[in-house]
Each structure stands twice: as C-alpha cells, then as structure tokens.
Amino acid sequence: MSLLVVGSVALDSVKTPFAEASDVLGGAAVYFSTAASIFTQVKLVGVIGSDFPKEHMEYLKNRGIDIKGLKTEEGKTFRWSGSYSQSFNEANTLDTQLNVFASFNPTLPQDYKDAKCVFLANIDPALQLNVLQQVESPKIIALDTMNYWIDNKKEALLKTIKEVDIMIINDAEAKQLSGEHNINKAMEKIISWGLKCIIVKRGEYGSVTIHSEGYFSLPAYPLREVIDPTGAGDTFAGGFMGYLASVEDIGFNRIKEAMAYGTALASFNVEDFSLGRLKTVRKEEVIERVERLREMMRF
Amino acid sequence: MSLLVVGSVALDSVKTPFAEASDVLGGAAVYFSTAASIFTQVKLVGVIGSDFPKEHMEYLKNRGIDIKGLKTEEGKTFRWSGSYSQSFNEANTLDTQLNVFASFNPTLPQDYKDAKCVFLANIDPALQLNVLQQVESPKIIALDTMNYWIDNKKEALLKTIKEVDIMIINDAEAKQLSGEHNINKAMEKIISWGLKCIIVKRGEYGSVTIHSEGYFSLPAYPLREVIDPTGAGDTFAGGFMGYLASVEDIGFNRIKEAMAYGTALASFNVEDFSLGRLKTVRKEEVIERVERLREMMRF
User: Fold this and answer.
1) A219 and B225: CB-CB below 8 Å?
2) Superfamily (CATH) of domain B7-295
C-alpha cells in the first residue's frame, strides 16, 4: 500500500556534548519518509521556503519519495534548533522559527487521495484531520502529537484521535494526554477512546504497545554510542508504518514486527547527525538488527 | 544450594502521594530473604536493636529463614524514612538513622560457612569482603552497592568486585561507578573488571544484563498501580539469586530466567507497603507472571 505522510520539513541546528551541526536536513516528515521508503512508496505532504537547498530536494526525489505534495512558499523554511545533555534523553529546544510552516494548510495532489495508509506527524490536530478528510478510503491511519497540542488544542486532538487506528507518542505525552501517572493506565485510557493500538516510545528504554490482542514490550537496540537522537521518534514511526503498509495488516503480530523495524531504523538514525546514517542504511542491515533484537529478548 | 545474605534489617517509614506507613519491617536483607526463600534455604546475616518487634522475628523464623546470623545489639534498630513522588521512579530519603547498624561487624555462625551461594547486599564494601572471606568455598557470589560507597569507598568496592561473579546495581549506579554516560558502555566496562555477569535494574523500565554469552533485556512486569516501591531492587535480587541457588547454574539461560523470577517477585512487592504482598505470594503466582513476561516479549 502507498503511504502518505504529512508533517514538517525542516532545517535543524543541533548541539550535543561532543559536536554540532547547523542548518542540516530534518523535520518529522523527512525522517519518517526516509525510514518508510525502505519498505514502501511514500507520498510526502509538507511545505518549504524558497531557501530550501536544492540538494535536499534531489535527495528526496532520488530516494523515490513522491514530493508532488511538498509545496514551496516564498519565505524561509521551518527551522528548529536544540541541544542534548550527555544522557541524550531529552531534547532541549533552543529556538523554533515556524516561517512558512506557520501558514501551512495542506491540499493533497489528486493522485495522493487514494493513499491507503496515512501517517499524521506532529502538526496542528485540526490540520491532521483536514488532511485525513482529503484521503478517499484510508485503511491504516496513525498519528503522533506533542505536548503543545495537548496543552492548547486538546479538543481538536481528541476529535482527530477518534478517526485514527494507531497513536504513536512518547512516555511523557501519553501521561499528559491521559492525566495518568502510571504508563499502563495511561495507555489503557487512551486506547479506550477508540484506537486499535497505542505505541509508547520511551527513548533508550524502548517502546511498549497495547493492542486489542495484548501487551508487548520491546527494548531499544543497544548502542555503545549515540551521536544525535534528533528524529529518532519519527524514524521509528517511519519504519513502523512503512512495514505495516508493506504487509497491509495491523494484527498484533504485525504490530510487534513493525515496532522492531522502527526500533532498528531509529538505532541507525542516532548514529550520525541529520540523516547521515539513515540515508545509507540497507534493508539487510535493518533486518539484521531486528533479528538481533529478537535474539536478545528470547528466554 | 543454601544461600547466604548479608545486609540491612530495618524499620522503614514511607510516604507516597496516596498513603503512608511508619516503622514497618524493611531492609535489603529482609526483602531479599523473603523473595529468595520461595526457591531455597536462606541464611540471614544482619543486626537489629533491642527494640525490634518480636513479631518480625517470628515472621522470619516461620518463613523458614535461618536467623542464627541475625544479632541483637543493645540500642535501636536501623531506621530509614523516605518518600516517593507520583512517578515512583526514585526514593527521596528523608532520614537515615544507622543506630546499631553503624557498628555492624558480621561474624558468621559456624554452620553458615559452608554456604555455596552468597549475596552481599548494599553495605560497606570492606564488610562485604570480610563476610565473603568467612565463607569456605562459595560457588555463586553476587553483590549490590550504592552511590555512597562509590563516592566514599571506591577502592574497597573495586577490591570486592574482583572476588564476585555477578553485580546487580541500578542504572545511575552503573553510570557513576564506570564514569560512562552510555549504559551499554558502562556495563561493558564494569564486566571487564572480572565479573561473569552484570545486571542493571531500571525500575519501571525493567532490567538488562551483559553476560559472557550475550546481552539480554527484560521489561518490568506491567502494573496498573504501584503502592510502594521500597525494596523492589532487593526483592528482584532475592528472586534472582534464590532461583540461581535452586538450579545451581549461572549459564546465560539460567541468568535470563532468574531475571524473570526477580522481576515477577518485585512486581508483587510494589503492590503493598512493606512486605505486605510479598509475604503471601505463592510460587505458582510468581511462575504465572514469569510466563506472562515471556508471552509479552515474544514476536
């Protein structure tokens, strides 16, 4: 199934305790598409400014990602800058410049409307719903969000959640959204709003899911070194949704496997700044890490 | 194999966001012994004051724990008081009164000296070594420690580590002890000091191990409610070592199973204050949770 993603395309500046990078390619939709395109055809919906480097457009095209839905507007591309401490557990946002992203109002190209699989990355939940309504008969729909929308657009977010199958969020967001301190209670509450499945991302501690058929917990892939965790969550979502789109199934076993593919891809992503490592990773390498994960969970 | 444990016996006062308990039975050696006694005969080494309630002595005896090595000294029993926030992730120590524990200098009863399995709970590493040297021919030796000893008695701690097979510590302690921020690097460094295996406890995120035969990660048992996490780490260690003592083997597969038993027991322990739940849990209930853990990791 072809997979549509709507979300940010950005130029990121990132500082870690060991190095830094300025104005590098980033954004949820870019990390997501790069990861997902290992498994399936991706149609990207987003907006960039007239300053967006041509090389990045070339990269997306060469990767086989459909960018008919990536609009160029007069002005500057969305910019995010952040830093990480030595634990790498949380990004500290230093600056956000929405630029052309501020007035983002996506209209789908005609041949995007038959997409069967949709990922609504972290944008205004009203826009997420708007995009979803332009898709004719989606079969698998997932969304992400962030604390800002939970704080400021909760009603719209709850309305969008009612239309989707799978929610992929992080630990803190799940707790905030549900008002529960216990993550298992939080997940049960959120899934009861009509989802088929909720995935909670926990960074270096892995991920957990509740699905109508059960509970599943997956560790992170063990790395000896992290260079830049930016985009790890979006890469996870990309591997996860790309895999699901390729098998056209969201049964429990497929969800578990999809989490493992997302985890493996995220582990490659954090090994370099921007998409440095993700751009070159081969499917066989991803499968190798999935098998290693399987191995280290067997007892 | 019989299992010897040396560590604290305490009266704890605990405050959570929902309830509190004062002067209840606690201490690493008590949680450890209670959990381990499900699998094997436990010999406890510790000290109590003349104020220690008789009912607790009766409890330990009735449980079949050998308390010949539990000395009563004139004075007050070791007391710890702490509180937890809603996340329950870390205890906030409010007060520690060492009392009779301050001059603790354990001498083993004659019939403790043939113990084959030894757990050195968190006490002064010099005392840990002293106890170990009194055991004639131990086959499986493990230790725990805490930030205080890493800060103040590192040399003695490193000396003790050289004599043991397995180290069981938490995430923060592993990072502090190794000076590494990455937990996988931290574990590799510590195991290279001569251990056969290192287990890192990560609270609600489960536990991980590096063993000469590989890497293994285990989630925590998912609970909807935590009442009091005090003693969870010692209960984990008790289930872990009790199981190993019963199978007389520290091969990789046994280590993995032992972690699952420790995890299951710890999950019961946090369901009530003090040893409220742990005292009554049956072996079949523990096995049930181990099987549930196995199930929720399969993919």
Assistant:
1) no
2) Ribokinase (3.40.1190.20)
Angle between helices B171-178 and B183-191 (to 10 degrees): 60
In the chain, the amino acid numbered B255 is I
The pLDDT tens digits of the residues spanning B114-152 come to 999 999 999 999 999 999 999 999 999 999 999 999 999
Q: Test B206 with A225 for CB contact under 8 angstroms.
A: no
Mean pLDDT, chain A, integer: 97
Choose, out of A205, A209, A253, the residue to mutate when testing the contact with B (most B CBs < 10 Å): A205
Spatial separation of the C-alpha atoms in residues A156 and A145, rounded to whole Å: 12
CA distance B97 to B203: 25
Whole-angstrom distance, CA of residue A284 vs CA of residue A288: 6
Instruction: Examine the pLDDT at B77 and tell me if it is beyond 90.
Output: yes
So what's the pLDDT on residue A91?
86
Q: CB distance A260–B224 less than 8 Å?
A: no
Which chain A residues contact residue B206 at CB under 8 A? 205, 217, 219
Q: Does domain A3-295 have CATH number 3.40.1190.20?
A: yes
What is the Cα gyration radius of chain B? Answer: 18
Tokens of B291: 């099987």
Q: What is the mean pLDDT of residues B12-30?
A: 96
Spell out the domain ranges in chain A.
Answer: 3-295
Report residue A161 as tokens: 């959640």
Q: How far is CA B287 from the centre of its chain?
A: 20
Contact B261, B240 (CB under 8 A): yes
- Asked if B225 lies within 8 A of A182 by C-beta distance, the reply is yes
Point out the residue among A205, A214, A253 whose CB comes nearest to the CB of B296.
A214
Chain A neighbors of B226, CB-CB under 8 A: 182
B contacts of A261 (beta carbons < 8 Å): none
CA torsion sign, B293 to B224 to B203 to B264?
Answer: negative
